[in-house]
């Protein structure tokens, strides 16, 4: 197995020889003369200190407790979620499963991030400590390579080279704020990291690789501090999933009707979209029929950026994307979420107060769709709130006020969005489905309110200022979104 000879050779060599284990970045092939053994995965374990995930104004989920995917069914079978399905529902009700499951809908008893099929979970080295969902416990080591050889391949793939280039640009940008020693530790690795395969640094690398693989775009986890804290622990999902109760609430919503089933509205005065088939686009008529008196419609421009000219943080808002009813293709500018144009991001440990936040790993333009908020769609009820940190709930004010997207133990990179008094991004609900035959899965997009440079924080405002003023008898804390901020939040 060869290694890269460019400036990133330090990382490659560390993985190749001195760390005495091989990172699974390019070990998709089965090693010669070895037979894959059975893999058993225990329930999440680890002490409270290992599981701490400090977040500004958000309590830490206890990862050792049943999450939203397995609440009440601790022995439920884990079946790999098929993220190509239009709808995924979490339920252990066998009758319900038989009734609703089809080629577009999958029902699973319990969700936990699975290790990608082309990544090994074999080898003689085993990580000590807490188990992380979707991350191999065992790794291929130097001794395995010496004993079995390798069937060709490269340690660093072209995709990983691109990721390293993004990482290096990000580190160059934040170098002044972290100091030379921490910069060199992250970029070139030091003796402590190289000689200790159990160093938290390697778990950050694992999360970066496997979550990027699931997401389909680059995600990097970093803690550029003298004392590296335990990385966040949760199950990664690139799509929203329903609980059974949430699905039953949502399935009969008018939003799921075919366009021809909706009440016809006058097309006079409706805004024009940038659909590649303007004469056939029905998005504005659909919006008028479903939401006209409830929200402001935001439209994409021809370049795919959202037009934020009429943006008012106090108003309800919704983005309407095209479906097959419009007669356009997947390349239509009005199908941004469907094309998954996500930007490279860094999950960055800011400080003890704010915990982990998001930073841009590449330039982001104003109006650009950065990512979407993924998790499990729940109903708002006492039963659904049980054993769940509701501070990770994102409200669906337009689709249904009875539903929320929860990312406390199951979510994507957007769960790390921090609060700011002057945010760089905003939540907007997105109506999006490729086919009229599919149920609309409620979505929340994260759009840039301004140009965001490499290394800058991607933030939203957790609360409207008017809502904060109305709160009485609520304990408030300092915002701390930036140095010198004197605002208070609940």
Automatic annotation (TrEMBL):
It comes from the Eukaryota. One of its GO terms (cellular component) is chromosome. Residues 1-75 are annotated as: Disordered. Keywords: Chromosome, Metal-binding, Methyltransferase, S-adenosyl-L-methionine, Transferase, Zinc. It comes from Caenorhabditis latens. GO terms for molecular function: histone methyltransferase activity; zinc ion binding. PROSITE patterns: SET. Coiled coil: none annotated. One of its GO terms (biological process) is methylation. Residues 1-11, 31-49, 62-72 have a biased composition (Polar residues). InterPro entries: H3K9_Histone-Lys_N-MTase (IPR050973), Pre-SET_dom (IPR007728), SET_dom (IPR001214), SET_dom_sf (IPR046341). It is found in: Chromosome. PANTHER family: HISTONE-LYSINE N-METHYLTRANSFERASE SET-23, HISTONE-LYSINE N-METHYLTRANSFERASE SUV39H. Residues 342-463 form the SET domain. This is SET domain-containing protein.
